[in-house]
Specification:
Layout lengths: L1 E5 L2 H10 L11 E7 L10 E4 L4 E5 L2 E6 L6 E5 L5 E6 L5 H15 L5 E11 L2 E6 L6 H6 L5 E4 L2 E7 L2 E5 L14 E12 L4 E4 L2 H10 L8 H17 L2 E6 L4 H9 L1
Parallel strand pairs: 1-2, 2-7, 9-13, 13-15
Antiparallel strand pairs: 3-4, 4-5, 5-6, 6-7, 8-9, 8-10, 8-11, 11-12, 12-13, 14-15
Helix pairs in contact: 4-5
């Protein structure tokens, strides 16, 4: 559970609407404070990683997430305990708070809670949870669009968590092409790694191949040895305890008939 304190009334309301189905009464384990205004741009010597959308740096023991934009750059300063962050931003559209920044922060928080976030589509069918893992353009949103009346957790990002003796998948508000997400969850029945094909087929995968596919599709920032260890342990248990398969699928309604028959 993340607490978000925002000192901009209109942005606060927009953020509240975006997360309305995910608001919790639980005690927060992470505190995010958002301030609108100027900040000190990180020096190049602070930076340790550059991506297409943001840079990661370290300054005085804190982690810096810098989001360079032409007129509305932002900076998030995350403490070394990974439970508090202050965001300085000029982003009047609040898109950073609705999507990118929370995804990054959750990718760091989740391993501490026996959980991960994957590039995946999650669907509940007949009370069973199905996880469809793929990179961008791999067919996640296609599977979601063909799901019919089944419960769609998310078409692009799914949280997977070990709870008690089983793994569950959870919806979240950071969707892809389909702005329909659910706060529901389900125990995982099968994990499918998607592959577009001229026919529908399924092949069981060995543990090593499953782990490689999971790691390559995870929101994963190994900024500490502890996060790296916990993440790899979760991957190991997922691949060992759950059924993982290569799913070739035709992009039409026959895929769900195929999966229902498989079930």
């Amino acid at each position: 559970c993340m607490s978000m304190a925002i000192d901009h009334p209109s942005i606060l309301e927009r953020t509240r609407l975006h997360y309305k189905n995910f608001i919790s009464d639980d005690k927060p384990s992470f505190f995010l404070k958002v301030k609108y205004g100027n900040f000190r741009t990180p020096d190049s010597k602070d930076l340790i990683l550059k991506t297409r959308s943001w840079d990661l740096g370290v300054r005085d023991g804190s982690f810096l997430f810098y989001f360079p934009r032409k007129h509305h750059s932002s900076l998030a300063i995350l403490d070394s305990n990974l439970n508090r962050a202050v965001v300085y931003t000029k982003d009047s559209d609040s898109l950073l708070l609705l999507y990118l920044l929370p995804e990054i922060l959750f990718s760091l928080i989740l391993p501490e809670n026996n959980a991960l976030m994957l590039h995946a589509c999650g669907v509940i069918s007949n009370k069973k949870g199905y996880l469809f893992v793929a990179s961008d353009g791999g067919g996640k949103s296609t599977i979601a669009k063909l799901a019919g009346g089944r419960i769609l957790l998310n078409d692009d990002r799914i949280i997977i968590r070990r709870k008690d003796s089983c793994f569950r998948i959870y919806g979240n508000p950071w969707h892809g092409e389909i702005p329909m997400t659910s706060n529901d969850s389900a125990g995982i029945d099968k994990i499918f790694f998607l592959e577009k094909s001229r026919k529908n087929y399924v092949l069981p995968l060995k543990r090593r191949e499953s782990m490689v596919n999971l790691i390559s599709n995870c929101f994963y920032l190994p900024i500490s040895k502890d996060i790296k260890r916990k993440t790899l342990e979760l991957f190991f248990h997922i691949s060992e305890e759950l059924g993982c398969y290569r799913l070739g699928f035709k992009p039409d309604s026959s895929i769900w008939r195929f999966l229902d028959e498989l079930a």
